[in-house]
Amino acid sequence: MGRRKSRFLRKAVEPFTIVADATAENVLERMERISFQGRNLATARRIWEKMLGSDATIFLGTAGALSAGGMRLIIAHLIEHRYIDCLVSTGANLYHDLHETRGRRHFIGSPTLDDAALASERIDRVYDTLASEDEFCKNDEWIAAFVLKLERRPYTSREFLYKLGEHLWNETGNRGILTAAYQAKVPIFCPAIADSSIGMGLSQARHRDQTAGYVDVIGDIIESANVVIRRPSTATIVLGGGTPKNFINQASVQAEFYDDRVGGHKFAIQIVTDAPYYGGASGSSLEEAQSWGKLSIESEKVTVHCDVTVALPLLVTALESTSRDALHKRKRPEFDPSGRLLVVNGQPLADNRYQEP
Amino acid sequence: MGRRKSRFLRKAVEPFTIVADATAENVLERMERISFQGRNLATARRIWEKMLGSDATIFLGTAGALSAGGMRLIIAHLIEHRYIDCLVSTGANLYHDLHETRGRRHFIGSPTLDDAALASERIDRVYDTLASEDEFCKNDEWIAAFVLKLERRPYTSREFLYKLGEHLWNETGNRGILTAAYQAKVPIFCPAIADSSIGMGLSQARHRDQTAGYVDVIGDIIESANVVIRRPSTATIVLGGGTPKNFINQASVQAEFYDDRVGGHKFAIQIVTDAPYYGGASGSSLEEAQSWGKLSIESEKVTVHCDVTVALPLLVTALESTSRDALHKRKRPEFDPSGRLLVVNGQPLADNRYQEP
Amino acid sequence: MGRRKSRFLRKAVEPFTIVADATAENVLERMERISFQGRNLATARRIWEKMLGSDATIFLGTAGALSAGGMRLIIAHLIEHRYIDCLVSTGANLYHDLHETRGRRHFIGSPTLDDAALASERIDRVYDTLASEDEFCKNDEWIAAFVLKLERRPYTSREFLYKLGEHLWNETGNRGILTAAYQAKVPIFCPAIADSSIGMGLSQARHRDQTAGYVDVIGDIIESANVVIRRPSTATIVLGGGTPKNFINQASVQAEFYDDRVGGHKFAIQIVTDAPYYGGASGSSLEEAQSWGKLSIESEKVTVHCDVTVALPLLVTALESTSRDALHKRKRPEFDPSGRLLVVNGQPLADNRYQEP
Amino acid sequence: MGRRKSRFLRKAVEPFTIVADATAENVLERMERISFQGRNLATARRIWEKMLGSDATIFLGTAGALSAGGMRLIIAHLIEHRYIDCLVSTGANLYHDLHETRGRRHFIGSPTLDDAALASERIDRVYDTLASEDEFCKNDEWIAAFVLKLERRPYTSREFLYKLGEHLWNETGNRGILTAAYQAKVPIFCPAIADSSIGMGLSQARHRDQTAGYVDVIGDIIESANVVIRRPSTATIVLGGGTPKNFINQASVQAEFYDDRVGGHKFAIQIVTDAPYYGGASGSSLEEAQSWGKLSIESEKVTVHCDVTVALPLLVTALESTSRDALHKRKRPEFDPSGRLLVVNGQPLADNRYQEP
Q: Any bridge partners for residue A131, and if so which?
């Protein structure tokens, strides 16, 4: 031929080969050289490793029925071992976590069950997963009772969820997202807490005492942006999209208004099932996020179009094998989320004004 | 043959035929006899008509970039003509509405534009749609300035958004979602207001005055449930899923705890692009909702798997032609959302306790 | 402000407004200024109009259960009025068309019917649509009987389907895809005929007479490329993806090997529901097609991510109102598909060698 | 409570836990107790194991860009170790396999590359994967040259592909799908061969010699049904949908016309990304397949909504660890696909009449 190979054709696809008893890590490593979402999932591990090796504050966003679907102890693991520094979650994921931490269970069902029969037995269905509505009602009451013990003042969702995790730990001693975050002092934000059963529990406390159950979600906006201002190098890992995806980006955008050092997240991973072409935020591309400054133009980023229940067990199992050193060495922020003000590396962050430099 | 036709084979598919200059109504009418999502869209109109002919309070949930994408005057129309009674929205849809009501615009772009170039010109992209970030920043300031004029106390998102619509109307006199809701006295709930630029505006007010910008989203939970308790016959129309979808269902579930007459929505339409099989709430089926009691077992319901920007113009144009009488005759609730307490048909609803019968 | 507006922000989104009794055309016209898939659908009409105003040979590809789903008379209309020049279809769409042209019906069902009950009554389900398996078996026999009347030699699918349409017309006098194509002398290719009930009918003829039922699908490849070579300006409209999508592109790519004037389709519309990011052909982007030369770099093109049963009734109804002149004036090819060789504008095309210029 | 637990709430979801260095098998085993598509993927392994432990003839269908995307040696492995007995494939997967078996490569690219630049360098893009068009042209010529060496008569795709694999093996000695099938005597059907570059190669042979390149795809229909009639216990594994999915089902349906012992596949796994609600065959549910008799009402079945490049490496790696015994013991059919007639367990199957019992 004599013709020079195109600059585009540099790195060949390596067909995946079957190796008996291969570890998850080995499987994922070899998926880096295949195509499509398999390659993207493998790339997600590399980017996560780079996050851990950097000085970035790592945000994790969790949406979708991850806790009901069996993902809650993976998220707890990520918190305990500080694969992440700050969780932003839907209320449902925290509620279904609380349900199991309190010793209740979700059950294996099927999407073709008879919903009228389920309703008559007071069983709630989440696609192929079931739970007892009566147990859910008891959770709501348990939350309401806890809320009524709190001092009467507005709480950011972050402070409230810390105290909820503390109470849950003290009462149960069980692992879960809320209790792991309590123990590891990892802050949790829940911007849409009003759209969840945790919110319902808060409202039931209010029903009994009209001075109870005030959540200051606007304080959460300021506090989360101040986390970015304090340490302007940040990373985002999004599972499922939803309000957490935007809230993590909003923290960066809002921070940049007040501090020029902030320039968008430096790393981004999202595992989503929504398509970008309908315009919704959950499916929006990471390139689009760059136009807004949510992501740095130079950021390393990958979107994995996949159900989290397929992608996350493989991804985190593989990561666990290769990230021990990085976890030990990483320059992570130390939080104290126990008080009205969130403390980062010994210094409190305001929740009512942006921390201008 | 002499053989009896199966009971399953009663109503034949009628192939759609092309008629020049046919109206949207005529097109949609004939789509009732085709299959798949076309039939579902046509069925949505029939169910909406039944809602209008019933005594149901009709909730509309709006998620996805509907306002940026050109749907905001359809939603305003639905409010003005009382195709719906209560709106539950993401903050983004209200914010992008406010942007245009204030005289700014969104622009036609393309998903393949260079995001680095857009970022350098401070242009934000939403898939194929663009807007000026500088104009967005001015909106935030405008919102903050408005917030600082308000009396210092917590506001439900419903009360806050009414006042925001009022201010917007007084300043601009322009049609839009917020201003239409103000004029038609249709309440708007925004449970995830903290995850939006309206929330950012509120936070900027707080930044200037730490006593400002308190939103009582837990009050919204109680108030929305009390709307259901007051009139237990309800209907839900969901565009895009997201927090509004669940919040509307939560209102019914929460109401049922306190009032046995509540038995789930009587009618349900959802136009969504998420698939049910990943377990997320946005894509969850209406059958699943029945297991939870969110929907009555006898409810009339349809899911349309389609982008709202395709489905809604056709659906509402057709509905407009056939619903005039029904709109005039309908037994709709009359709201007064102007005060701290939401007034329904002359009677205020509590925001701090559930209205037990 | 005095600041110059960005070059990116030239054309504003115009919010869609509700107009009672608006025609489909008027609805679609105003959808050109909204966003997302609504805008894309509106753009599809403009591109189709440009196709009609050009000298392009227009290919239509049909996949998915369009005929069972009520789309067959739209496709027949497109053939009769020469909105298109050449159809490439899955076998299923032709088979379900034949079923109805023979006077049988598909029926309205539901996706939640009990499939065991349906099986016991010999009813076949296509999502929410039903048909009698016994009637299908009779179709197969009818096809086999027809095949046995044909001279024993291999037929391209194009020649075979012309004769099938002719026989169907003579026996029924009913409109449909096959009969419209027969009467309008529009060629139909079915490259995957072996994967369909038409193929099953052919095989049953073979079962009775082993010299019957030979389809020369390789001849189809050559003939379809020769259609492009004869008139190198081409356009593609794809509904649903599948084998027709690739076959239409393959015709262009193959033609270009033999004729430098061929440079990819000049116009492209696709209405698909598959996502591009899994790598499959049905969801592949039109940009990707440009890398292969399937589409000209300068082509006008649009992808509409939407179910065909929603998009097509609106699109073609609107097109019908605005394209009468263009249809009369268009420089379309005249085919005679009745013989072993396809005749274009009076000249036969080889089916066993590429027509080198 | 004293209240009996509902019959629906028997088997709890077990949250997945992270274990360092866990094997793929161990990961997948624990995914059986989570939810959504993760559970479905884990279930797929159990069903595949049951297939291997039964007397079923196992069909594998492959569609989508699996070979270009790095899956071809997994498929070769499945053939070599007789995890499957018969392959039904799109032409593209066989063509891209041939490309690599001939020593050429696919390359790692990105979906955001400039397609005009790629076109100018004659590089073809498949989402994030690239290949040289010049190399593709040489493949086509290589195929044409091979076709011209064959005796001039129609070949079923099965016979043709066996001979193609044989030639490829003799020339290269390299592993791949075609060469593995040749060596393991596993038949391959390609019903849509006319819609692929293998078909293009055949057409180029015809161009040089008009007596060459006849593929008898109707013979494939009969032969594939006769495979089912010979051994009425069957199983189907579908990757990606497309023509292979239906062709495998069609073989069972067609067989049942002639042999009452055939009652639909006994086991079914499909890994697909298409949604069922648009009515297309690729996304159609396995329940729907039961209404047609494609699947037995008692069949064990699972759909995994996932990209094959994510699911297959994990699934087959895990299967490899647990299936050795089953593979050795399994009662598999022995094929000889080398001649005009396919031989099963020493007895030839007709290709021109159905094997009535």
A: A124
pLDDT category at A141 given cuts 50, 70, 90 is very high
**What's the pLDDT at C1?**
40
User: Which of left, alpha, beta for C9 (phi over 0: left; psi -120 to 50: alpha)?
Assistant: beta
Write phi, then psi, for A20 (nearest 5 degrees): -65, 145
Q: Residue D289 corresponds to which tokens in the numbers above? A: 């397949």
Global pTM value = 0.98
Average pLDDT over residues B227-235: 97
Q: What is the residue type of A2?
A: G
Supply D248's token pair.
């495998």
Answer whether residue B285 shows pLDDT above 90. yes
Average pLDDT, chain D: 96
Q: Is the pLDDT of residue A245 over 80?
A: yes
Spell out which residues of chain D touch residue C63, defining contact as CB-CB under 8 Å: 280
Per DSSP (E only), the strands in chain C are 57-62, 86-89, 107-108, 123-126, 129-132, 188-189, 234-239, 265-272, 295-305, 335-336, 342-344, 347-349
Write down the pLDDT at residue D356.
Answer: 77
Integer Cα distance of D187 and B20 in angstroms: 52
Rounded to whole angstroms, how far apart are CA atoms A303 and A243?
17
Tokens coding C196: 């369909």
Are D269 and D304 in contact, with CB atoms under 8 Å apart?
A: yes
**Residue-wise DSSP of D251-298:** HHHHHHHH-TT--SEEEEEEEE-S-GGG--STT--HHHHHHTTSEEEE
Q: Write the CA distances from B345 to B88, B225, B248, B328, B348, integer angstroms.
A: 20, 16, 20, 17, 8
Alpha-carbon torsion A52, A58, A64, A69, what sign? positive
A217 pLDDT above the threshold of 70: yes
In the sheet that holds B342-344, the strands lie side by side as B335-336, B342-344, B347-349
User: How far, in Å, CA of B207 to CA of C12, rounded?
Assistant: 33
Name the pairing type of β-strands A347-349 and A342-344.
antiparallel
Closest partner residue to A243 among B154, B243, B353, by Cβ?
Answer: B243
Q: Which residues of B touch C34 (CB under 8 A)?
A: 69-71, 309, 313
Q: Of C119, C190, C138, C134, nearest to C161 (Cα)?
A: C190
Q: What is the pLDDT of residue B2?
A: 43
Which of these, A167, A152, A163, A153, lies nearest to A219 by C-alpha position?
Answer: A153
Both tokens of A303, joined, read 């979107």
Residue matched to tokens 């489905």:
B311
Spatial CA neighbour of C127 closest among B234, D278, D327: D278
| CB proximity C13 to B under 8 Å | yes
Separation in Å, CA C266 to CA A61, A139, C62, C262: 44, 62, 19, 10
- CB interface of B with D, residues 18-37, below 8 Å: 35-37
Q: Which amino acid is at B183?
A: Q
Q: How many CA atoms are closer than 13 Å to the CA of B178, on its beta-carbon side?
A: 34
Structural tokens at position A286: 């990471």
Q: Which residues, 6+ apart, have CB-to-CB distance to B138 below 8 Å?
A: none
**Could you list the active site residues of A?**
294
Sign of the torsion formed by the C-alpha atoms of B188, B190, B196 and B199: positive
Tell which phi-psi region holds residue C82, choosing left (phi > 0), alpha (psi between -120 and 50) or beta.
left
pLDDT digits (tens, 9 = 90+) for D138-156: 999 999 999 999 999 999 9
Mean of the pLDDT values across residues B303-330?
97
Closest Cβ opposite residue C310 in set B70, B310, B320: B310
* CB atoms A127 and B284 under 8 Å: yes
Residue A333: left (phi > 0), alpha (psi -120 to 50), or beta? beta
- Model pLDDT, residue B227: 97
